[in-house]
Amino acid sequence: MENKWAIILGCSTGHGAATAKQLASEGYGIIGFHLDRGSIKKDALKLQEEISNINNDKVQFWNANAADKEIMLEKMIDIKRIIKDGEVKLLMHSIAFGSTTNFFDPTPVRQRQMDMTQHVMAHCLIYWTQSLLDEGLLKAGSRVLGLTSEGSYKAMEGYGPVGVAKASLEAVVRQIGWELGSQGITANTIQAGITPTRALTKISENWEDWVERTKERNPMKRVTTPEDVAGLVSLLLNDKANFINCSTIFCDGGEHRSL
Predict the structure, then answer these.
(1) Banded model confidence at residue 4, pLDDT cuts 50, 70, 90
(2) What's the predicted TM-score (pTM) here?
(3) Which of 31, 95, 138, 231 is the most exposed place for a label (fewest CB within 10 A)?
(4) Which runs of E-coded beta strand occur in the chain?
């Protein structure tokens, strides 16, 4: 079996967790970062154990801030030791942590909130890609993937900082793919539809209404699930997807085409 690994930034819940389980079932080793406390931390430990049982203990989770460059460089030493002569087939950015507020009333966003949201949800992917490339862990056939949303091009209540960060993430990923495409390394973003995850509950108190409205407007009359996204990630890792680059791929049942 090939010594293939996936690094998932934001692995404990939602799309990151579903992707980790899907790829583990296909023989991938999983390296995951999450930043959780309390019950969610316990959930992450359970997920790590589940993945260990699936892929014969080829898993390492760290409860650490993956957006902190010093932590990234520190853990890079461990990542090289764990992977050995293998390669990172996937670097996936699935971190959902940012300021959910407006630019103006009732609680105007502050500069440090904007800066933090931009770095955590977009810019840190640049430095992860740089570091893995420098260490020779990204090779022809490797994928860099980011998760975006319709908030990257639509304005909505309380989503300003995150919407800006999602637009930035798309630009970051596009540029990565443009610069590394000649090496056979591709980069794309996945736009999932409204998905009832923990991250959604942090965006709005009315998230349950969002879910019900989405079911009505979605052509397939349901919301997106993390497993839908995990399935797409699996497809994109196939060699037949080698020429898909610098693109945003929709995984929403046609939701973005409906009012």
Answers:
(1) very high
(2) 0.94
(3) 231
(4) 4-9, 29-34, 59-63, 87-93, 143-148, 186-192, 247-251
